[in-house]
Specification:
Length: 155
Amino acid sequence: MSQVLENAVAPDEGCFPSSHKEAGTGLCAGNILLVDDEPSILTVLAWNMNDLGLKVATALGGQAGLKRLYEERFDLLITDFVMGDLDGLFLVKMANLLHPAIKIIVMTGSLHLFPRSLPPDFHFHALLEKPFSLSEFKVLITRIMGGLPQDEKRK
């Protein structure tokens, strides 16, 4: 059911009803860009974000992600750190320059390669180590996008 775009694999974009929405934690205002160089990861994570009622655009690799950042405004960027064509930190830097208010999650399966300190112009909200559970992923996105009630945020 996914549609293939130029340099991207994306499920149908839009807001979808979910159990989170019925519980008052649905998110529909967010416009999210998900960037990874593994098509299977893009598909699984995008479908899970759709379950939260989020509008998700995907980009296969850093170059495609950079192109999307130039073309559109996003509320949240979720990017892999290690990608073959353009690394996630460069994408973070460009996202910060192009969209200063953007929220960013960096995913990595190579935490040992992640720099211990970054220049002040690198801003991101979370570093998520792979592998992670889908429930952990959903909770993080919901928290960053402001969709969890206050008592849920404390857990």
